[in-house]
Amino acid sequence: MIKLDNVNLVYDIDKEVQTYALKNINLTIGDNRLVGIMGPSGSGKSSLLYLMAGLKKATSGKIVYNNTEIIVSKRANGGELRLKEFGFIFQRHFLIEYMTVLQNVLTPINSYSKEDINKALGLLEELNIEHLAKKKPSQLSGGQRQRVAIARALINDPKVIFADELTASLDHKSAKEVMKVLSKYKNKSLIIVVTHDPSILEDADEIINILDGEITGVEEVRGEVI
After folding, report:
1. Tens digits of per-residue pLDDT, 5-15?
2. 44 near 21, Cβ under 8 Å?
3. N or C: which end of the chain has fewer CB within 10 A?
């Protein structure tokens, strides 16, 4: 579970005019579900994701993951959580260019055991790119690179998967196929997806709407609107 208690993210805090990227965020997200964060460009949805993932530091307020406050610093628990508990899929793929597809997928676990190689190949097969296992990122299309990034995020069986506009480089058909694969994991992981495209959230359990840095509504898709 992730809980945000009166969280603010302010830019230019030392200047006369300050900009609130996020303002007075109070939010609780439960375990093992698919949650969408929706909003227009510049609404603060990616900033919200990065705070929950420990990739940004809040200006004020508290962010708690499973009863542990996330502290963002070089020596604090954020790095350990990201390594052991979290998986990430970004709009930019951040693949390592000199590694093969298979090697990129195995990077988070730093293991080339037969079991882990077979697991990675299984993920690539689910994403319909197992035939690219020996290719380098420069030999792939943007959509193929994104599928590799998704497999890499899943290899460590993360308890939370953070995805920021993961389908932006995919056509509509491929985007829906990728989301179908990802949604299979919501029974054992909390999956949080930032997107501007509501059509990819048809399997979501909850949708958080955000505008101008403030949450405007939380919709339980399989229940009532809060």
Report:
1. 999 999 867 66
2. yes
3. C
In this structure, are strands 19-29 and 68-69 parallel, antiparallel, or unpaired?
unpaired
CB 205 within 8 A of CB 50: no
Identify the pLDDT of residue 29: 93
User: Phi and psi dihedrals of 209, rounded to 5?
Assistant: -100, 135
Q: How many structural domains comprise the chain? A: 1
Contact between 94 and 149 under an 8 Å Cβ cutoff? The reply is yes
Residue 102 lies in a domain: yes
User: How much of the chain is in helix, strand and coil states, percent to nearest 5?
Assistant: 30, 30, 40
- pLDDT at residue 103 above 80? yes
In a domain, 146, yes or no: yes
Burial 93-128 (b: 16+ CB within 10 A, else e): bebeeeebbbbbbbebeeeeeeebeebbeebbebbe
Q: Look at residue 226 in the predicted model and tell me its pLDDT.
A: 37
Domain membership of residue 16 (yes or no) is no
Predicted TM-score (pTM) of this structure: 0.86
**Positive or negative CA dihedral for 165, 163, 200, 215?**
negative
pLDDT tens digits, 205-215 = 999 999 999 99
| Cα dihedral 7→67→195→106 (10° resolution) | 130
Identify whether 20 is part of a domain: no
Cα–Cα distance measured from residue 226 to residue 223, given in angstroms and rounded to the nearest whole number: 9
